[in-house]
Write a structure and sequence with these properties.
Blueprint (H helix, E strand, L loop, with lengths): L2 H14 L2 H11 L13 H6 L1 H7 L3 E4 L18 E6 L8 E5 L6 H10 L7 E4 L5 H12 L3 E4 L13 H10 L1 E4 L9 H14 L2 E4 L7 H11 L3 E4 L10 H8 L3 E2 L3 H7 L5
Parallel strand pairs: 3-4, 3-7, 4-5, 5-6, 7-8, 8-9
Antiparallel strand pairs: 1-2, 2-6
Helix pairs in contact: 5-6, 8-9
Protein name: DNA-processing protein DprA
Pfam families: DNA_processg_A (PF02481)
Family: Belongs to the DprA/Smf family.
Length: 271
């Protein structure tokens, strides 16, 4: 079995038995020879994922050992062994700004992104295709002519939320959709938190538009800090609930976005 095929098989197997992922991550961190682990995939295990393999191999995917896999994504805890994708895989190698925020984001987020993105130099905008700030970021990027990456928490053949069917289709045509989850995987709550680490890992910096003090967006910002990414935040009015999280980030040292120069001066490319 080729190493690339082995990683796909192992990746699918860990979705059935997550404990398998721990042993492989330790080997990766120790820079061990991954081929030594192939004997652990006995015939019974391979047979158990054979139906998933048949489906997965019909989709485009990039593995941890492929050249197209961005080196910066290998830096995060439990990097995805496989990313299934639809669209332009080359976007994984470009300067990327992650944009996240509340599902209840207001017109303030939409208007700011619509004004900001056309003033940015060529870069890719990554977000999670969720309702609110995520979809605003994707829409603003497409309008501004910036490529966009949607990191989703379900199989790339699934659409969530359903109202984003056309947006997801458009991104898959002119941008990039990626997911660590095999085709056919429906969204579950825990997958959205896991998805956030990939947004932070792919990005060279993460901007939070609007967020409450307890928000999944702040989890993404925390991942970004852990990965030594720049964190940006939009300032908001005193007493504004959706500004409490972003104002707290600014108080903690996040770069306050007052215009395109804030992003341009603090966002730097590395592989």
């Amino acid at each position: 079995m080729r190493l690339r095929d082995f990683l796909l098989t192992w990746h699918l197997a860990t979705h059935q038995n997550p404990r398998l992922a721990v042993a492989l991550e330790k080997a990766i961190r120790a820079k061990a020879d991954l081929t030594a682990f192939q004997h652990e995939l006995d015939k019974k295990l391979t047979q158990s994922v054979e139906p998933l393999l048949a489906v997965a191999r019909q989709s485009a995917y990039v593995t941890y050992v492929d050249d197209a896999y961005p080196p910066r994504l290998r830096e995060i805890p439990q990097p995805p062994l496989v990313l299934f994708y639809r669209g332009q895989i080359k976007l994984l190698r470009q300067l990327t700004l992650g944009v996240v925020g509340s599902r209840k984001a207001t017109g303030y987020s939409a208007a700011t992104l619509a004004q900001l993105f056309p003033q940015l130099p060529p870069m890719t905008i990554a977000s999670g295709l969720a309702t609110g700030a995520d979809s605003m970021a994707h829409e603003a990027a497409l309008t501004a002519g910036l490529p966009t990456i949607a990191v989703i928490a379900n199989g790339i053949d699934q659409v969530y939320p359903a109202k984003h069917r056309l947006l997801q289709k458009r991104i898959g045509r002119v941008g990039l959709i990626v997911s660590e989850y095999p085709p056919g995987t429906a969204p579950q709550r825990f997958q959205f938190v896991a998805r956030n680490r990939i947004i932070a890992g792919l990005a060279h910096g993460v901007m939070v538009t609007e967020a409450e003090i307890k928000s999944g967006s702040l989890i993404t910002a925390n991942y970004a800090l852990q990965h030594n990414r720049e964190v940006f935040a939009l300032p908001n009015r005193f007493g504004e609930r959706l500004g409490a999280g972003t104002n707290a980030l600014i108080q903690a040292g996040a770069a306050i976005v007052t215009g395109p120069d804030t992003v341009i001066e603090n966002l730097h490319y590395y592989p």
